[in-house]
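Sorry to interrupt, but I need a hand with the structure work. It will help me judge whether the discrete encoding reads sensibly. Write everything out right here, beneath this request:
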Amino acid sequence: MHRRFRLLWMLLIMVLPAPWAGADEGLTPTFFNPRPAPGDIVLPMPDNAEMVFRAVRVPGSGFWGDQDRIIQIGDAAGGIFEGLQRTQISGSFPSADGQGWDIILAKYELTRAQYVAVMGMESLLAVSGDPEDQKLPTLQGRALRDALTLPLTFVSHQDIQAFVRRYNQWLFDPAHPERVKALPRVDGVPGFLRLPTEDEWEYVARGGLPALQAGTFNDRLPFAEREINEYAWHLGNARHQLRSVGLRRADALGFHDLLGNAQEMTAGLFRPEVWQGKPGGIAVRGGSVSTPPAELRSALRAELDAYAWNPDQGRMEERRSFNTGVRLAIGANVVVSTAQRQRIEQEYDQYRAEWRRTMPVGRTLDNLVAQASVQLGTVEPILARLMQENAALREPLTAVQAHMDRARERLDMAQRESARSLAQDAARNGVNLSVYLSRLQRLEGSLETARRLAELSTRYQEQVTAVEASIRDLDEAARAQLQGYRDKVSTLGDYEPAYIEQAFAALAARETPRREQVVLELLKTHAEDFNEQRRADLDLWLEDYRARFRDFTDG
């Protein structure tokens, strides 16, 4: 680092007042953590710089997890690369209370100041594609501060990887064991800096475990749309101009600028279906100051062409983007010790027996029906080839083919029955939901009457309180039935349309009460919509039920 710049750097950190002084958090802001908050994990950097991280809990307590770790990412109403997918989210480190696992993600986007602290000013001037960065050595005071607290952009993916490598080397210098003191650990082994995966990033952006528990995880934004200007810099309020990190409000988990400001590189290559399809450039998330507010969403993803074609020069170049930066994560190896591996192996037996077949990976690898279908499809061409090449084997192989055909029929029957059973269970949730909604409608009428009476005499206030309590209990029960309904419809929606159609045909053939008939009509529509769109719209489904069962009578 230039000697003159180092002196300016130290003066800047120690003396210059922070523009966030007096923030509503009531904590003293600092240069590298403008919005300090309980739970911040602060790592040292060279030249007294810092990087701040936060832990985000994932569901479940074991290493392998359970059904609670299945989350849905993507947005059926988003772009072509945001198709809904189910995945199992996992944490890298045991939680502080020892009862779960955490993802550790940087609280802010990586800034120019942090890059300079590790790599030096000369390196930034050499790798940056931003002409404004060339002016940094000439800046002083607030102008220098404002420039250094901007997200690091206009550098290549390769430059970011070089930074991560150098920072890890500095942290792990054996002559300075104090540097790793704050790093989270697995079995006493400290983690290391890396880029976040796409599913880690989206899980945090959607609000993590609190959002899952509140039922808001699948919302398009992690905050009310009317508040978007308070949480994010986008095209509407930033107009392509990056802003210093931490100026917008923190989200519910304490992170800043996950949506907007600079779009952020992740660890994986960009693939059209997140984990499937042609591997391309680098997957970037979160949108930026160039993203229209109507397009900003937790599922938004794009491709950064790590190597881009320059048509004017007629050559490939390392891609540098003015609005693409990065946010680091702290990761750990899966296996860090022999003892830990043994524990993982012991847990796996129980996981495989109880949960794996219900997880996304199990539905494709351990699901017996799916496995058998794949295996039958693999064997058939082999049999056909053997029959053609060996006339003497034609008769016994024909017998094998007949057995396979019968097995295929049994598999078809199993899928029909499974789909019918799911539809029946979902209908049961739907009937319960409709009953609760009918009761709520009547109670709301009673509440209005009780309130009018309470205006005339206070002795009716107890009646008001009792009705309000009943409404709260019924509303909670209705929400629980809606969640169960959603889970079963989502699973049913994974079946081929023919099996869904057959399931409802079988249920419709029974003699059922009028209420259940109406539920089956709604259920069929919702299952078909999910099968086509891969999206469970709970608000719309609930409104469908309210509309169909308003003033409904079973007679």
About this structure: The mean pLDDT is 87.
